[in-house]
Automatic annotation (TrEMBL), chain B:
<protein>
    <submittedName>
        <fullName>ABC transporter permease</fullName>
    </submittedName>
</protein>
<keyword id="KW-0472">Membrane</keyword>
<dbReference type="InterPro" id="IPR035906">
    <property type="entry name" value="MetI-like_sf"/>
</dbReference>
<comment type="similarity">
    <text>Belongs to the binding-protein-dependent transport system permease family. CysTW subfamily.</text>
</comment>
<feature type="transmembrane region" description="Helical">
    <location>
        <begin position="104"/>
        <end position="128"/>
    </location>
</feature>
<keyword id="KW-1003">Cell membrane</keyword>
<keyword id="KW-0812">Transmembrane</keyword>
<dbReference type="Pfam" id="PF00528">
    <property type="entry name" value="BPD_transp_1"/>
</dbReference>
<feature type="transmembrane region" description="Helical">
    <location>
        <begin position="207"/>
        <end position="225"/>
    </location>
</feature>
<keyword id="KW-1133">Transmembrane helix</keyword>
<feature type="domain" description="ABC transmembrane type-1">
    <location>
        <begin position="69"/>
        <end position="273"/>
    </location>
</feature>
<feature type="transmembrane region" description="Helical">
    <location>
        <begin position="148"/>
        <end position="172"/>
    </location>
</feature>
<feature type="transmembrane region" description="Helical">
    <location>
        <begin position="64"/>
        <end position="92"/>
    </location>
</feature>
<dbReference type="InterPro" id="IPR000515">
    <property type="entry name" value="MetI-like"/>
</dbReference>
<feature type="transmembrane region" description="Helical">
    <location>
        <begin position="12"/>
        <end position="37"/>
    </location>
</feature>
<feature type="transmembrane region" description="Helical">
    <location>
        <begin position="254"/>
        <end position="276"/>
    </location>
</feature>
<keyword id="KW-0813">Transport</keyword>
Amino acid sequence: MSGKNPIGPLDYARRWPLRLWVGAVILFLYVPLASLVAFSFNDSRRTIRWEGFTLDWYGTLANDDALIAAFTNSLTIAFLSMIVSVVLGALTAIALWRFRFPGKGLFDGAVTLPIVVPEICMGVGMLVFFGQIMPWPRDLVWPFDLGAIVIAHITFSFPFVAVVVRARLASFNREMEEAARDLGASELRALWDVLVPHVRPALISGALLAFTLSLDDFVITFFTSGPNTVTFPVKIYSMVRFSVTPEVNAASTVLMGITIALTAIGMKLQGSAMTQSH
Amino acid sequence: MMSTWDRSKGSFLAVIAAPALWIVLFFVVPLSVIWAYSFGRTLGLTEVAVTGTLANYARVFDPVYLMIFGKSLVFAGLTTAVCLLVGFPYALAMTFASDRGKILLLLGIMLPFWTNLLVRTYALMAVMRTEGYINDVFGLVGLGPFEMLHTNFAVIVGLVYVHLPFIVLPLYSTLDRMDRSLIEASLDLGAGHITTMLKVVIPIAKPGILSAIMLTFIPALGSYLTPDLLGGPDSQMIASVIERQFKRANDWPFGAALSFMLMYLTLLAMGLRALYERRQSGARTAGEA
């Protein structure tokens, strides 16, 4: 359908009331974000009026040791959480896809619950768990002091990975694995050589998802982090509570850029995997 | 397709041991402890004796906290209603757009969704504060400035801003599966577009709309960050009260009871949705038979 055709009865997307509506929604969604990014380049302490282009705030950012430390913490946590989440998520998906076992519904429910439980409930659960049940030593050397946060992040991330991998497993042809077994591969060997390559795209997009979820999390981290284990979002939160400054704008822009880039890569990988399998 | 676990015990255990152990130790145990604490009494600073008391749950029904629960439900309900009103036409436009238009509209709604929640909330703070851009615009025509930030209004705007994708995506997937000839038939038979929407599209899409409502309502109900940063002293939702019990007031048993009330509400909403879906699919198979 080219733009020159007359508008058909069902061409709702081309009718002006809907166009206006969609335009308004897009403005509502993007004006705040765009102005946030724009004012991170503004040459003024007061963030209201445009005074000229500057990269000073990014310079301030680069010299803010506490912020850099928080950023390093966040990336480390996200990386560790990603590795473990992919392994646990893949194992969960394979267990549910492959085996019939007593208590399967219970297991399925238990690994789905972290996706739906309100963040605040999980946050306080982690606070009490790492405060009372399994106290995480406070004076460990970096990065071991991040352990509690990493564990919390893995717990809410791997169920998401499991969902992604399960969706991919549904399209696996079991005969391929049986062929490998017939040709003499052991069960685990067949799993590794035949099944894993098939789910690789899901593993990659699951990994990126886990990384982004971890990097983005504020609420659960807020309840798990101590004074020496501040993450980037927690640090930004304390800055935001204090005041609206161009430095916070710059920090937010950096975080936004990273998340969007990672998600876009994940989507692209998943998209190309879909087209390959069809 | 599936094999029974005891036919290949070794590989079954190899696959399930780690995730099962993890979920029990780091999810079931922490939540069980919170659940147990909700029947307990504070002894010291962080010491709790689980006595089996129901006093904490009784305190939830104190008018002060009942009000906060009520307010949270109203905030989440209002958010969902506004999201539905704003999101439905957007989903409709997406459904009938060209392939390229679909992708653009999808990206349009997803890009903010991928952005950190904190960043999005902060962006709104900058726009809505008294020296913010909205008041600048009002100032040009000689109005204002209005106090918008730290009000209930700001909380609703913030919640809508954050939850819009939650409603648009399920709505789109429902509308996209709909049989378009039904709309054409309605239009051919002389109904206007609005009548067609109200009498044909919405009734057909009703299960999807309900599911979209739940998917928005549930996360909105448990919001912490948005009311915390955008709201004033009187716009607290349940999550803020829970946070206070655990971090400042140090009344863990009461905080635990509040957490579980929130959890029960969430599970109730999900249960209703599952029940409704089962009834729907039951009715569909009965209709096809």
